[in-house]
Amino acid sequence: MTSNLIHPLDDLFRGFFVRPVNIGSGGDVAEAPQVRVDVKETADTYEVHAELPGIKKEDIQVHIDGPVVSIGAERKIDKELKDGERILRTERYYGKVSRSFQLGQDIDDAKASAKFVDGVLQLTLPKKVEAQATKLVIE
Hints:
By secondary structure, this protein is mainly beta.
């Protein structure tokens, strides 16, 4: 006696390997991911950790304008296919992403530093020392 019930995993993967996906034509193209950041503040600095998985460090840009920090990155698609290969499905996002945010104080961009380790951009952003008011002596 055979059962007419379909195993749940069979239903999940039905058609998965059958339909080619047209990359860049709209259909099943992944949405741009949001750049997720953690920001910590100390007395002298801001520490920013931004997740940029799958991005090469040469494809990341950081701009500082006073208290505003902008992070931009681009994941480029590798269109090089070998003979006989074709892409059946892609769910990873390819393209540009960016994120800007304002901190509570201007950044000393001359002393700022950045590292990129294991898909995480680590920024050390020293606070700019505010100019002290001086009393002018009248002669």
